[in-house]
Amino acid sequence: MTSRGAIYWRIASFAVAAGFVGLWQLIADLRLVSPVFLPGPDRAWASLVRGFTSGDLGSKLLGTLEHMAYGWFLASIAGIALGALIGSSRSMRSYIAPSLEFLRPLPVSAIIPVAIALFGLTQGMALFVIAFGAIWPMLLATIHGFAAVEPRLYEVARSLHMSRLAVIFKIALPSAAPDILAGMRLSLTVALILSVVCEILAGLDGLGHSVLLSARAFRSADLFAGVILLGMIGYLTSLMMSFAEARILRYRRRS
Amino acid sequence: MIPDRFKGLVFPAAALAALEIWARSVDLHSDSLAPPSAIAAAFGLAISDGAFLSATRDTLASAFAGLIIGGAIGLAFGIALGVFQVFDRLMEVTVEAVRPIPSIALLPIALIALGFGYRMEIAIIAFACVWPILILSRAAVQEVEPRLMEVARALRLSPADRVRKIIIPAALPRIFVAFRLAAGIALIVAVTVEIAINPIGLGAAIMAAQQGLQPDLMLAYLVWIGVIGYGLNAGLNLAQRHLFGRAALVGDPA
């Protein structure tokens, strides 16, 4: 009964969202806002379909996904490895953690000019910026997760004469997994935002660059199509991360 | 043995010293890097001639204006969604559909609708600040001690009084946490928008230093932006501990 109730609520909720789209259409049709700024959902949708069938929206989408994925993977590997290195040793933690705490609130986009000075307006610059920005949530989550491992587990490891690598892979990483996965999810959003910013600044092939060009040419339908697509990337990647999280952490709920 | 308090300083001090020695030994003349001593000199100069001050004022004014507008919208909707379950369930899909749009993607829309300047930046910051405050204040309201709500019902408080006298005071510590997180986001978005396109504030200043091939000034701005971020975060943490003590620690996601 309750599950059926939930489905009805879901349908009603979709109806409300459809109502908002209808309202948007009405505002656009009545020209309450100039169509230069606000295309109707019909025009945005038509532009989206046209972009995929005859335009280059697909390749732009791939470009953005590529920037995001490379930067995020690089940040994941580096963040977890560095986090494990720092987190698994008490003295490393006390020497390095305060510096990281100081750097954490730094708006990461401020590194962009430095990256441009170092690498120029290139793909390498984008990769560096995205990886640098996305590394923080994972690095700090890994350090925190390693520091919060139940101390008795370390005692068990010592009495079993486990090597440091074995301790990291068999005890610390599984125990810190929820923290690390939460950090990885946060990093996804950061990676998407920084991909768009880098594309805008460096003119790299991607949605960020294409929405900016649409805006400059006042092609508002193309602009909205790009923004809708970016929203969908944000939604779908976070959805995929939730599934991955649920699967990886399934063993925890059973115990 | 080094006392724990100073251990944190060893690493940055060593890194700075190494950079200084390296820069001097290779007689560095670069468009992208500068020795720490030159950065410190540029830092001092930019503070004394007021360049930091005016850029910081622009950035923080936009960040706070966006935070207040976005926070007010987020708080109003968060409380409404938290109090009225029906409303919450009906809005679910709409909120889920709009929330994942990265704030920076709205930049071109804000650009053609509002042009360059404060208004466009404030609109984007406000959009970014709505969501954390909406989500966290909704959760804070939903988790208000049920017995308080029973008291409100027994006293036959009107819905407006219920919100004003029971719900807001009970949820206030967690709402403050939401504002603290949103303030950090506001600063990040402000700097990002300025770096990407908007010619005001700290972000534009650091870009100008990069394009003017002044690495010392650029890195001084980077350090200054770091100091601002750290100061804002530390100040809000202090205020939170001062105002709410341990009450705010409940459910703090940070």
Description:
- The complex is a heterodimer of chains A (255) and B (254).
- Chain A is mainly α.
- Chain A contains 11 helices and no strands.
- In chain A, helix 2 packs across helix 10, helix 3 packs antiparallel against helix 8 and helix 5 crosses helix 6.
- Chain A is globular and about 75 Å long.
- Chain B starts with a helix and ends in a 10-residue tail after the last helix.
- The mean pLDDT of chain B is 86.
- Chain B has one domain: MetI-like (MetI-like fold), CATH 1.10.3720.
Task: Tag the structure with descriptive keywords.
heterodimer, A: 255 residues, mainly alpha, MetI-like fold, 2 domains, 11 helices, 83% helix, globular, B: 254 residues, 10 helices, 80% helix, 0% strand, elongated
Q: What secondary-structure arrangement, pairings included, does this model have?
A:
The complex is a heterodimer of chains A (255) and B (254).
Chain A: H1 2-29, H2 41-53, H3 57-87, H4 90-103, H5 111-119, H6 123-147, H7 151-159, H8 164-202, H9 207-216, H10 220-248, H11 250-254
Chain B: H1 4-25, H2 36-48, H3 51-83, H4 85-98, H5 107-114, H6 118-142, H7 146-154, H8 159-196, H9 201-211, H10 215-244
Helix pairs in contact in B: 2-10, 3-4, 3-6, 3-8, 3-9, 5-6, 6-8, 8-9, 8-10, 9-10
